[in-house]
Amino acid sequence: MERFFSIGYKFQLNIYNLLERTLEWSPQQEIVYRDVFRYTYADFFSRVKKLAALYKSLEIKPGDVVGVMDWDSHRYLEHYYAVPMMGAILHTVNVRLSPEQLLYTINDAEDKLLVVHRDFIPLLKAIEPRLETVDKIILIGDGQKAEYTSPRVVGEYEELLAQVKEDYEFDDTLEENTIATLFYTTGTTGNPKGVYFTHRQLVLHTLSLGFAAAAFHQPVSFTYTDVYMPLTPMFHVHAWGVPYVATLLGVKQVYPGRYEPEMILKLLVKEKVTFSHCVPTILHMIVTHPATKDVDLSGWKVIIGGSALPKGLCKAAWERGIKVASGYGMSETCPVLTLAQLKPHMFDWDEERKIDVYTKTGFPVPLVKLKIVDMDMNELPPGRHNQGEIVVRTPWLTMGYYKSEEKSKELWRGGWLHTQDVAYKDEEGYVKITDRLKDVIKTGGEWVSSLELESLISQHPAVSEVAVIGVPHEKWGERPVAHVVLKPEYKDKTTEEELKDFMMKFVEAGTIEKWAVPDRFVFVDELPKTSVGKIDKKAIRAQYQL
Question: pTM for the full model?
Answer without folding.
Answer: 0.86
